[in-house]
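Most newcomers find our protein records easier to grasp once they have seen one. Sequence and backbone structure share a record, each on its own labelled line. To make this concrete, we reproduce a full record directly below:
***
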Amino acid sequence: MARIARVEVLMVDLKPKVKRVDAIQSFVSQETPIVRITDADGVTGTGYSYTIGTGGHSVIELLKRTLVPAIIGREANEIEKLWRELLFLTHATTTGAITSIALAAIDTALWDLQARKLGLPLHILAGGAQDAIPLYTTEGGWLHLEEAALIEDALRAKADGFGGCKLKVGRPIHEDVRRISAVREAVGPGFEIFTDANQRFNVDEAIRRARAYEPLDIGWFEEPLTAEDISGHTRLSEHTSIPIAIGESLYSAMHFREYLERHACSIIQVDVGRVGGITPWLKVAHMAEAFNIAVCPHFLMELHVGLCAATPNGRWVEYIPQLDQLTTERMTIRDGKAIPSSKPGLGIAWDFDAIERMTVEGSHSIHL
C-alpha cells in the first residue's frame, strides 16, 4: 500500500499523419491529456485519453481543479474505489464526454502504476486470456479517397497479414456500393471489409443501405445511426443480416447494457478513452461476453491491444497509429496480429522528452 504523493497533468496536440475524413467530420487534431501519478514509494504510472480537435483544455481544467486534488494522499491501488468516488464527485457532469475523458486519464495512470509495482503487463494483470489479436486497418479507407487508393491500401494490408480493412461510407449509395465492390473484387473472399457511417444516417436510410451492402459480404456496419437512438439500432438489427457495431460514442457502461439488453448491436466497440478508463472498459467487455458478443474497440490501439488480450471476447484491434511521436517503441505486430507487450505496465514506451517538447502551453500542472 502506498499513497498518491504527486500528480502531473499536461496535454499534447497530435496532428494526423494522413488526411482523415468521414461522413460527418474531418479529423484534424488529437488533443491528448496525459496524467502521471507517483506514489509514496516513488513509482510512477502514466495514463492518457484524447479528444478529436475540441474540448482538450476543458478536460485539463476538470483534472486540475476537481479530480486530481481529490486523489492526492489516497491509496493508489484502490482503483475501483477511486474511480467510483470521482464519478460521483462529478455527478453534475456525468455521464458526459468531458468527464469520461478526464476520468480515463487518471484511471489508466492508476492501472499503469499498479501493473508496474506488481511487475505485470496489463494483459496479464487484467485477465491474460489471449496472446495475440487480429488487426484491421482504417488508415486507408477514409471517405475522401478514391477507389484506386482504397484498393491499394486493402491489398497492402492483406499482404501484411492483416485480417481486414475498414471503409468509410456516406457518399451517395451507388458510390458507396461501387467503392465497396471494387475493394471486395480486389481482395477476394476471406478478407474482412468493415464499413463505418460515423452516425450519418437515420434508420430508414440505414436499412436501405444495409440491404445494398449485404451482397458484398461486409463484416459489420458501424455507427449507422446517432448513438442515442437505441430503438433505431434495434429496428435496423431486425432488418439486416449484417452485424451492427456501436460503442465509440458511448460514455457509460449502463448505455452498453441498454444496447445489449435490447439486441440493438452485434459488435461492441468500447473505447477506453471515452468510457472512463480501464475500470469501466473491463466491465463492458465482460458484460458483452455474457451476451456472447465480441469486443472490437475503437482507436487507441497501443492501449487496446493489452485489454483485448486480457479478455476472451477481444476480437479485433483497429490499426490507426497515433502515438508514434510520443513513444520510443511501436506496438508489436507479428503475422498481421497485434502482440501485447510483456513489459510491466500498459505496454506504452513513452518518450518523455518528446512529450515535454510538445506540451501545449498552459496545460502543465503539478500537484503535491
User: Anything to note?
Assistant: The longest helix spans residues 97-118.
